[in-house]
């Protein structure tokens, strides 16, 4: 299973995925890590692991469409089965999403459909939810929607701050995303007629 990972910053989810693929000898290959800015810290880490790491800088393109076309071309060169968004902070055009239909996956730091968009931990605390977490889902043109593959939950504590909550959710992300990558690599994820995700062989 060929994978390309897209990042925008530190890339700790990408690192968790790379480490899991290697440590558990998953039938997967991280073919490339691509960032939308050259200074994304995760690029250097990926390069040091011997993974092709490159940037397609959104600032170099006059429009979202032009950037997405360049990004799609860079990804296509690696012929991935799946493209994993891991802290990739650009909204993608419908054309890009269509191009990778069924192959584009994202992790979002909330229990979707609650709290799409930014500042999810702050939103969770402001709303007073008792459970918060993260969601791995197929990407559709609507931001932070799309068929849900897996979720992980943490209990919100009365003394939580956005930072403390973010830390616990991030630890969960680092387990959840690699789990999903394993299911994808083993060919166990499919969509049913209702566009709901089925994961085969999970007890
Ligand atoms: C993660 O919380 C991800 O869910 C969110 O941004 C953060 C990225 O962290 N969208 P990292 O770059 O994977 O360390």
From TrEMBL:
InterPro entries in alphabetical order: Formyl_transf_N (IPR002376), Formyl_transf_N_sf (IPR036477), GART (IPR004607)
Catalysis: reaction(s): N(1)-(5-phospho-beta-D-ribosyl)glycinamide + (6R)-10-formyltetrahydrofolate = N(2)-formyl-N(1)-(5-phospho-beta-D-ribosyl)glycinamide + (6S)-5,6,7,8-tetrahydrofolate + H(+)
Pfam families: Formyl_trans_N
Single GO biological process annotation from the record: 'de novo' IMP biosynthetic process
Top-level lineage group: Bacteria
Binding-site list for N(1)-(5-phospho-beta-D-ribosyl)glycinamide: 11-13
One MF annotation (Gene Ontology) recorded for this entry: phosphoribosylglycinamide formyltransferase activity
Keywords: Purine biosynthesis, Transferase
EC code(s) of this entry: 2.1.2.2
Family in the record: Belongs to the GART family.
Protein name (record): Phosphoribosylglycinamide formyltransferase
UniProt source species: Pollutimonas bauzanensis
